[in-house]
Amino acid sequence: MDGDKVQKKPIRLIAAVCNGRGIGKDGQMPWDLPSEFQNFRDHVLGVSRPGKLNLMIWGKLCWYSVPKSDFPLPNVLHAVLSTTLETVPDHAHFLCPDLDSAARLAARPPLSDLIETIWVVGGTQVYEDALKHPWCDLVYLTDVMADFDCNVFFPEFDTELFKVQEGFPDVPTGIQEENGIQYRFQVFKKVTGVDD
Ligand SMILES: NC(=O)c1ccc[n+]([C@@H]2O[C@H](COP(=O)([O-])OP(=O)(O)OC[C@H]3O[C@@H](n4cnc5c(N)ncnc54)[C@H](OP(=O)(O)O)[C@@H]3O)[C@@H](O)[C@H]2O)c1
After folding, report:
1. What pLDDT, in 10s, does the model give residues 83-135?
2. CA 109 → CA 5, 39, 113, 140, 195, distances in Å?
3. pLDDT per position as a tens digit, 153-167
4. Confidence class of residue 5 from pLDDT cuts 50, 70 and 90?
5. Do you find a cis peptide bond into 155, omega within 30 degrees of 0?
6. Which residue of 57, 62, 83, 98 sits with most ligand 1 atoms within 8 Å of its CB, as the best mutation to test the pocket?
7. Of 19, 110, 162, 174, which residue is most buried, by most CB within 10 angstroms?
């Protein structure tokens, strides 16, 4: 149906998750870990050469939780997912009704020659849909080794299908510590690779 114009792009999830899989509380991040956040930025904003771009996919609440003084971000386009918004939010580039529509934007002309990686940055439903998407190959999860009061959670996922993979040069190894909170970076790789 897509013909030969679809250039599949890797879909990668990135999240920091505390004990109990918590990721958020009342629309905010539950912790303050600047170095962990810098690692997030390094990944989502990283491209192989000038002129290339990544696509970030955001749920509506995530998008509105980020101060707009943070934008624009270099090397990325932003797609916000919503079934109720009618116009593209300020500073975003696309409004899409579901994850697959956003992914296919990146995979077709005119964006397909520009976009390298699709980064899915939450929240829960967006992560859940991305984990099931056939183009999803990697899940970057920071294991925040502490308890926080959360009311938003990272979805359960199949750890037989996504297995911890070591040896990514851009992923620091070992236990990190900041503001008295220990954490470690982990990458889960889909064992079956990327499907059609
Ligand atoms: N720790 C981390 O790494 C991390 C990462 C990301 C977010 N967070 C935290 O997570 C919280 C926000 O996440 P959330 O799950 O509450 O909200 P969210 O996913 O950002 O926003 C929910 C809304 O986005 C739209 N949406 C979400 N998934 C969609 C989909 N697949 N297709 C179409 N529309 C979709 C829907 O809007 P409509 O109702 O308009 O359809 C939905 O009501 C915040 O606390 C944030 O700080 C933490």
Report:
1. 999 999 999 999 999 999 999 999 999 999 999 999 999 999 999 999 999 99
2. 7, 30, 7, 28, 21
3. 999 999 999 999 999
4. confident
5. no
6. 62
7. 162
Q: What is the CA radius of gyration of the chain?
A: 16
Which tokens is 61 given? 């609440």
Q: What's the CA gap between 127 and 139, in Å, rounded? A: 10
Please give the single-letter amino acid code of residue 34: P
Residue 166 alpha carbon to ligand 1 centre in Å? 29
- 102 CA distance to ligand 1 middle (Å): 15
Spell out which residues line ligand 1, taking CB within 6 angstroms. 15-16, 23-24, 27-29, 59-62, 65, 81-85, 97-99, 121-126, 129, 152
- 4 alpha carbon to ligand 1 midpoint, in Å? 32
- Domain architecture of the chain: domains with CATH: 11-18+31-190 (3.40.430.10)
Element (H, E) at 104: helix 99-107
Given the CA of residue 15, which atom of ligand 1 is nearest to it?
3
